[in-house]
Write the structure tokens for this entry.
Amino acid sequence: MKTLLKRYAGVLIAAAAFTAFLILLPQWRGKALDSIGYQARTMLLVIPPIFILLGLLDVWVPREKMIRYMGPGSGIKGTVLAFLLGSFAAGPLYGAFPFAAVLMKKGASFPNILIFIGAWSTTKIPMLLFEISALGLRFALARLAIDIAGIAIIAWAIQAAVSKQEIERLYGAAEKID
Amino acid sequence: MDTLILYGIAAVGLAISWIKNREKTRTALKKALKAFEGILPQFLVVLALVAAVLAVLDTAFISRTLGASSGFWGILGASLVGAVTLIPGFIAFPVAASLMREGAGATQIAAFVSSLMMVGIVTLPMEMKYFGKRVSLLRNGLAWLFSLAAAFFVGWVVSL
């Protein structure tokens, strides 16, 4: 009970802050209520398939396989696989985080996790097709090209800037996910 | 559209899994539920944050910011708006397209689109749960800086 309260302390604070927002800023009240309803619906719609897929991944992909394909020694093959996995994903970026945690638990290397997150955020193929039709081929391809470079640069920079202990701590936490 | 593909993949995966091994499929579903319960507190915090932010920074506000301002400050503003908002592409792209038709610069639009995709300030609570403060803040900070570079590049390519 106490741990439950502790886990949800942030939620209580957020709920209080949101209520205060509604009371103190009536000019945004209607919009905020519409928006929370809309966001809750979209998030609840997107979440079930993502969590089902990560559950299936957790159960069906053995650790040795994941290490072989995406682990520290997987080389360029692992990078490409991480990139493709992220690019063929669908859904908003916050769906990538729990998914990445399962990949970590299974032994994918940290640079590959960062590539996966980067690809999920910017190179999703269904979104790209939509972007081409809305903003034009030139715009979409230029953005895609520079963002692919960005994914690599950001992954490299984070890997370089974060200590080994911190990465090990994150892997330890991911392993505890049942 | 996105979501439909996602449901399709999940349904096919689930069906194959069910045919191959029912027990494992049950375990997978249990794990899915548990993983969701694990992230639920952060999810609810993000929900309140998104609702408040999008009430203030609504589509009209975004259009004003991206449409009116130009130059470096316009690009900076566009990337900041992209960083703090959470809008699915199928809403953001048409808005961006109509702004471009009305004369907004490709550089601004690219700054907005890039940071909208890569940077997620309101979803930080969820990201930090798995990646910790340091990695999450670093990733978002770098991605935001990079969105500026990406904007100039895209603006340049479009102008060629």
Remarks:
- Chain B has a mean pLDDT of 89.
- The CA atoms of residues 18 and 25 of chain B lie 6 Å apart.
- Chain B has seven helices and no strands.
- The radius of gyration of chain B is 19 Å.
